[in-house]
Amino acid sequence: MLIGIISDSHDHLPRLEAGLERLRKEGAELLIHPGDIIAPFAAKILASWQGPLHVVYGNNDGERRGLKSVLPQIVDGPLLVECKGKRISVDHYPPDDEHPPVDDVDVILFGHTHEVVNEHRNGTLYLNPGENCGWVRGESTVATLDTDSLKAEIIRLEA
């Protein structure tokens, strides 16, 4: 199965729409957003995803009630997503002592830093798709994750 990942969209509606469209074209069947959607009006675009959608709050998601009304599945991380026999830990924050990932997982997925990370460490894939908004790093990215090979691809969106 191909999973689409989009993080740190920060209310940039055109880039959020472009990211979702690109993930649809790539054939993603499930979508994960590791936080920082920001406002309910942006959450409505995310909620348009046709298929399973997993979302965690980010540190800038202050309007939690409004986000929850649009995305009832949104939770604080870490969240465990099990897909095709693979275990994926989803949190907004990179793993550290304060934000430990779920134990015994195949993938540790996070956002927050706006920096792309796509590397295997001790048999676990660490993946940050970077920022969808493009405001901090100047580049808008999303990612796909193949559950069969546990390989991720970072996709750069046109400005």
From TrEMBL:
Its cofactor is a divalent metal cation. Its EC number is 3.1.4.-. InterPro entries: Calcineurin-like_PHP_lpxH, Metallo-depent_PP-like, MetalloPDE_YfcE-like, MPP_YfcE, PdiEstase_YfcE_CS, Phosphodiesterase_MJ0936/Vps29. Residues 1-149 form the Calcineurin-like phosphoesterase domain. Keywords: Hydrolase, Metal-binding. It comes from the Bacteria. GO terms for molecular function: hydrolase activity; metal ion binding. Belongs to the metallophosphoesterase superfamily. YfcE family. This is Phosphoesterase. It comes from Symmachiella dynata.
